[in-house]
Design brief:
Elements lengths: L1 H27 L3 H11 L4 H13 L3 H14 L4 H13 L3 H14 L4 H13 L3 H14 L4 H13 L3 H14 L4 H13 L3 H14 L4 H13 L3 E13 L2 E15 L4 E16 L2 E19 L2 E10 L4 E15 L2 E15 L4 E14 L2 E17 L4 E18 L4 E13 L12 E14 L2 E12 L4 E13 L2 E12 L2 E13 L1
Antiparallel strand pairs: 1-2, 1-16, 2-3, 3-4, 4-5, 5-6, 6-7, 7-8, 8-9, 9-10, 10-11, 11-12, 12-13, 13-14, 14-15, 15-16
């Protein structure tokens, strides 16, 4: 009897071994489907074979079957760490974030110091764009591996996504202290400096990154953009505009030439020249007009986030100063909040048909909080002595003009925004020479779309408004642009329309960096 049992056991073990060897052979020769059938039929509780098959599926990119195999392991042994970690990573790859989080959290519940689980949860929150939560998980992981460069690189990327540029820069500099041979750290600092509008400083960091990794296409492309940003940027715009009001119609053909050049991180100039030929039909009387206005603007950053600017311009055809303007620009990032404020004051020749000038103080305040944008524009001033009412008196005309807008941004590839606007305009006197409403309140809704595709982009913006006199108005802009090597070309059309006034503009812009 003992001999019979012994022979039976030997035979059974030989059968299992032969079956296991056959399954391993099928896995080795990549006959995964056959191995899966044999495993389910003859050896369904063999953890190591399911693990081996799952790993093989994963290596071949078949994530669905890899998940199936690791789920088998987990069902057999719910405490199998390797299966938990594999499933968490696989579900993250397939963007099944709820299931990925479930398995990473199970690991973390068993061991709060598990770095792999902390990193997994950080990556899930990053994909969800919950950057603050992602940063907490990354920071916790770094407590256990403080000098791990790949982790520091990942948290730097999240800081960039969260617009925490100073913290991202600090992370890249920390990498350089640990090991200064990582090109990603040098290019990362270069990218931040470029985003901070410091291309000359950024250029030095990109050059160091390319010394370390000259074949890195991403760094090469970013470096090219930095070099282009310190070249002369030249553009020419040709447009046709038509304005219609109850008593007149103006058709104008316009040319605008613009040149920008940055001479350092702190100083750059913009030169603009505008030329127009127009005819005005006012109650059957045709008036033809040539007009030009050219100006030079300089911006100087006196301190990080603090700029002063000055503009001066004139017209040859009207032999007059067209703009004299000075201002102060401030910007600062407070964690997730970005604040900008631009204060200007000056004098401008703003409506040449009637030779009207004004003195003004204007301010623009912008607050960005994650996906919410708030903006207010405020302008106060006076029209210099000119006709008011129906050209019956001459007087200065004080005015107040301000608006508020609140927008929400969403979308990744196609960038969308939607929001509401309010504007208030009030002049002391009505004038028939220029737009001068009294106590006008305007309420509206606005939306925009920006869609980039390779070297092409589409842009559309529209708003619908109503004022306190129940006058409705619509405004929309549409633009398509594309790049051919160093040249960019765009076509745009805009229209503003209400009961009393309409403005249409069709334009072509050609430009590039040289």
């Amino acid at each position: 009897m003992k001999n019979i049992i012994f022979i039976f056991l030997i035979g059974f073990i030989s059968f299992l071994y032969a079956d296991t060897s056959l399954i391993e052979k099928e896995i080795k020769t990549k006959n995964f489907a056959k191995a899966k059938v044999l495993l389910e039929k003859n050896n369904p509780r063999n953890i190591e074979l399911w693990r081996k098959l799952g790993y093989s599926y994963k290596e071949e990119g078949d994530l669905k079957n890899a998940i199936f195999c690791y789920e088998k392991v987990f069902k057999i042994d719910s405490e199998d760490y390797d299966a938990e970690l594999a499933l968490a990573r696989l579900y993250l790859q397939t963007n099944e974030l709820y299931l990925s989080k479930k398995y990473f959290q199970m690991i973390l519940d068993n061991d709060i110091t598990d770095v792999e689980a902390l990193l997994g949860l950080a990556r899930i929150q990053k994909k969800k764009e919950n950057y603050s939560k992602s940063i907490v998980y990354y920071q916790t992981a770094l407590k256990y591996l403080p000098d791990n460069i790949p982790i520091i690189l990942e948290i730097a990327e999240v800081y960039l996504d969260a617009n925490k540029l100073d913290l991202a820069e600090r992370s890249y500099k920390k990498i350089n202290k640990i090991d200064d041979t990582w090109s990603e750290a040098w290019s990362g600092i270069g990218k931040i400096l470029w985003w901070k509008n410091q291309p000359f400083s950024a250029k030095k960091y990109y050059e160091k990154a390319l010394e370390l990794d000259p074949e890195n296409k991403e760094i090469v492309n970013e470096f090219r953009k930095v070099k282009d940003s310190i070249k002369w940027n030249l553009s020419a715009t040709f447009s046709f505009q038509k304005e219609i009001e109850d008593t007149y119609e103006i058709k104008s053909y316009n040319q605008k030439y613009l040149g920008k050049k940055r001479f350092s991180d702190k100083l750059f100039f913009t030169a603009t020249s505008f030329w127009q030929y127009a005819d005005k039909n006012e109650s059957g009387l045709i008036t033809k007009r040539y007009y030009d206005s050219s100006y030079l603007k300089t911006d100087w950053e006196v301190y990080d986030g603090i700029k002063v600017n000055f503009s001066i311009g004139g017209s040859l055809t009207d032999s007059t100063l067209t703009v004299l303007d000075g201002g102060l620009f401030l910007s600062h990032n407070f964690n997730f909040v970005k604040v900008k404020n631009n204060l200007n004051f000056g004098n401008e020749y703003f409506y040449y048909w009637e030779k009207v000038r004004r003195n003004y103080i204007k301010e623009k305040f912008i607050l960005n909080f994650e996906k919410v944008d708030f903006q207010t524009d405020y302008q106060i001033g006076k029209i210099e002595k000119n006709y008011i009412l129906d050209k019956s008196e001459i007087s200065e005309n004080t005015f107040l003009d301000y608006n508020f807008s609140l927008k929400y941004r969403f979308g990744k590839i196609a960038k969308l925004s939607a929001g509401a606007v309010y504007r208030y305009i009030d002049y002391a006197y009505y004038s028939s020479l220029y737009y001068s409403p009294i106590d006008r309140k305007i309420y509206g809704l606005t939306g925009s779309l920006y869609y980039p595709f390779k070297k092409t982009y589409l842009y559309f913006d529209c708003s619908v408004n109503q004022d306190n006199s129940n006058i409705w108005e619509t405004n929309y802009d549409a633009e398509i642009g594309f790049s051919i090597k160093k040249i960019s070309i765009s076509f745009s059309y805009s229209e503003f329309k209400n009961k009393y006034y309409q403005n249409n503009n069709l334009s072509l812009t050609i430009g590039g960096d040289f």
